[in-house]
Amino acid sequence: MSTEPELIELRELTPAGRPGPGRARLERANALRIAPSPARNLARKQVPGRGHRFQPAGPATHTWCDLCGDFIWGVVRKGLQCAYCKFTCHYRCRALVCLDCCGPRDLGWDPALERDTNVDEPAEWKTPELSQAEIEQKIKEYNSQINSNLFMSLNKDGSYTGFIKVQLKLVRPVSVPSNKKPPSLQDARRGTGRGTAVKRRTSFYLPKDAIKHLHVLSRTRAREVIEALLRKFLVVDDPRKFALFERAERHGQVYSRKLSDDEQPLKLRLLAGPSEKALSFVLKENDTGEVNWDAFSMPELHNFLRILQREEEEHLRQILQKYSHCRQKIQEALHSCPLG
Asked: What does the alpha-carbon distance between residue 329 and residue 161 come to, in Å, rounded to a whole number?
């Protein structure tokens, strides 16, 4: 395998937002031409994925389905998750899962370090606002410490560019559109690299050692970095399914913190210096149990409320039915007892 880093340019990215109606989609006509009649007949007889042991997902599971891509919402019926590979899906999608279970994934972390990991521990250093002179001095110090050509450079407008390395530590599979051609450069600039209405999806597990170098601006946000990585791999999963984490090793322990959508990774890189132990970036599933409800549209939120109401009514019905059955049994026992 080549040791040269693969670079992704993030020069002019539009602000991260929800997919617009103009996104490309996989048309039905194209799907019919790609899959002739015999293949369609075979598709109806899909072989279920082997090796999974699905069980109800925990109450803190707020994520997106690995099969259909829709958000899994609910309080009682949260969805299903494989105990081995962590494949997560709706109850309704369970019968359609064709991807075989890969078993527990060893993502390469050092167990001795991970055993005492503290998550969301505040960093020892803050992210202060630097003056232009301080930024220039920091960039000179940074460039003097690296032994490659991945330098940072100061621009005339006061911003700066540089490189960040992102490790992809994804436990669950990702989905790509079936028989969909890679996005063009124009598509990437317009943000049409992922279709919002793709119906035919192919799931697979990314290699555990996947690493990408990105050339970014100082104002590039964490959410834009995530979207660029997904476009690179043609991933059609919702970007909110993933999160960018900063990882640091100090005193024999590993500290990990999820970056907010608006944090600027290159600024963090400049403040921490080039050492990977002092700071590294990791893309993982956004399975912290926290949900940024502000990121959802009004129709989505209204739909969640309707789902919540239906689930509440069904749960109450089951509870009332259980108590009614118990009451009936007690009354039958009372009637069967002889008087006196």
From this structure: 74
User: Could you give the 3-state DSSP secondary structure of residue 333?
Assistant: helix
Q: Kindly indicate the confidence band of residue 339, based on its pLDDT and cuts at 50, 70 and 90.
A: low
Q: If you average pLDDT over every residue of the chain, what do you get?
A: 75
The number of angstroms, rounded, from the C-alpha of 39 to the middle of its chain's C-alpha atoms is: 32
Q: Express each pLDDT in 21-65 by its tens digit.
A: 444 443 433 333 333 434 444 444 567 788 899 998 876 567 888
What is the distance of C-alpha 336 from the center of its chain? Answer: 60
Give all strands (DSSP E) within the chain, no chain letters: 7-10, 54-56, 63-64, 71-72, 80-82, 88-89, 118-119, 153-154, 160-168, 174-177, 201-204, 211-217, 242-250, 253-258, 280-285
Q: pTM of the entire structure?
A: 0.64
Residue with tokens 């007892």: 337
pLDDT per residue as tens digits for the range 231-285: 888 888 889 889 999 999 888 888 889 998 999 999 999 999 999 999 999 999 8
Strands 211-217 and 54-56: unpaired
Query: In 10 A of CB 48, how many CB atoms?
Result: 12
Query: Cβ distance 211 to 166 under 8 Å?
Result: yes
The sign of the dihedral angle between the CA atoms of 250, 251, 252, 256 is negative
